Backbone:
């Protein structure tokens, strides 16, 4: 990516003040570091603030912090922690019910009392070395360019690698969202770890795999949804090891697809040996479907004239996946639930129209009619 003035970086590396605030409330820091010392020193005088006790109560039911991180990543900086209105369609159960409101309100109060943001830039500077290293690594890896070249799909949106020095084992998380304007927002929390040669680093050996996995969601989930969204409710039985990780048929399909794409990108980038190792590390490797997808993707790589994008090739992959137990009719209601805003519907229509140049699949036509009808309905 060229970083000419006016062109926004699509992959950013930053410290997130909301995630830092949660880390302070969760305390203590997992690794010794001048940054951790500065955090301790800054907030020690506020240990009796009620936000700590309330946070511990919420943590009992949210041990990995996923609910609170989800809430914070869709909000502005403390102390306001205002919901990001460009993410309106991503309001979850916690936003609708206000279940986290008492916790948010205590966090806001703690941020005000401790003048949380006043010291944030100075604390961030203590991680300059590690953040710059991650930024340089991400830039050199060219994840986005390689993913786009491979899939033929542009990822329209931003990817934030959030350096999370206070995040503990099991506390990292990845999220792929579609903003109301139809663009993507991907966030990956990145832990601070001991570096092999001493010191600390945010550069995880699995960074490439993680970024490509999430970017593949960002570029391809729309295609999967356009073809197969009605299979959201269809159960998937691939044995306990896989079914535990996949909520339903559609989710299972999506996870196999992005893992296969990621492994092929590793192969093209670092060689087949590295890809084999990646394959062995994937939880799905003992099942035949990932293997089948990998073989098909190699065929796709040889047939780019016929299949300019992976979306064009997608029906071939689905045909190699276990048949869904039931095939519900394409329902307009299901489509309404998927594309909530004019921006999201416009992005879906752009992809649909391109797919329909080469595909005569009746589902695409039905989907298009449903999305257009949703846009015309005054109730939405
Ligand atoms: Zn995934």
Residues:
């Amino acid at each position: 990516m060229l970083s000419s003035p006016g062109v926004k970086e699509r992959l950013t590396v930053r410290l997130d003040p909301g995630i830092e605030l949660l880390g302070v409330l969760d305390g203590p820091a997992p690794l010794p570091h001048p940054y951790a010392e500065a955090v301790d020193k800054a907030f020690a005088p506020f240990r009796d603030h009620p936000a700590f006790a309330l946070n511990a109560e919420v943590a009992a039911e949210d041990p990995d912090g996923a609910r609170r991180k989800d809430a914070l990543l869709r909000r502005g900086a403390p102390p306001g922690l205002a919901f990001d209105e460009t993410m309106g369609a991503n309001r979850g159960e916690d936003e609708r019910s206000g279940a986290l409101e008492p916790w948010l309100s205590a966090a806001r109060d703690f941020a005000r009392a401790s003048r949380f943001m006043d010291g944030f830039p100075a604390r961030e500077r203590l991680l300059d070395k590690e953040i710059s290293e991650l930024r340089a690594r991400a830039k050199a890896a060219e994840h986005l360019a390689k993913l786009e070249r491979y899939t033929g799909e542009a990822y329209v949106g931003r990817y934030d690698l959030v350096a999370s020095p206070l995040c503990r084992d099991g506390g990292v998380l990845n999220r792929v969202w579609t903003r109301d304007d139809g663009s993507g927002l991907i966030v990956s929390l990145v832990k601070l770890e001991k570096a092999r040669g001493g010191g600390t680093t945010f550069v995880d050996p699995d960074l490439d795999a993680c970024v490509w996995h999430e970017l593949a969601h960002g570029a391809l989930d729309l295609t999967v949804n356009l073809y197969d969204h009605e299979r959201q409710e269809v159960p998937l039985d691939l044995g306990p090891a896989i079914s535990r990780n996949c909520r339903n048929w559609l989710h299972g399909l999506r996870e196999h697809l992005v893992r296969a794409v990621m492994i092929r990108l590793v192969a093209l980038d670092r060689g087949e040996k590295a890809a084999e190792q990646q394959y062995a590390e994937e939880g799905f490797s003992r099942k035949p479907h990932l293997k089948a997808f990998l073989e098909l993707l190699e065929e796709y790589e040889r047939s780019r004239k016929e299949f300019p994008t992976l979306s064009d090739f997608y029906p071939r992959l689905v045909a190699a996946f276990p048949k869904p137990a039931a095939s519900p009719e394409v329902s307009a209601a299901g489509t309404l639930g998927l594309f909530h805003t004019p921006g999201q519907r416009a992005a879906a229509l752009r992809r649909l129209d391109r797919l329909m140049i080469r595909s005569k699949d009746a589902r695409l036509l039905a989907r298009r009619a449903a999305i257009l009808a949703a846009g015309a309905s005054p109730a939405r």
Observations:
- The first helix runs from residue 17 to 26.
- Residues 11-204 form one domain.
- The pocket of zinc ion is lined by residues 213, 217, 255, 258 (CB under 6 Å).
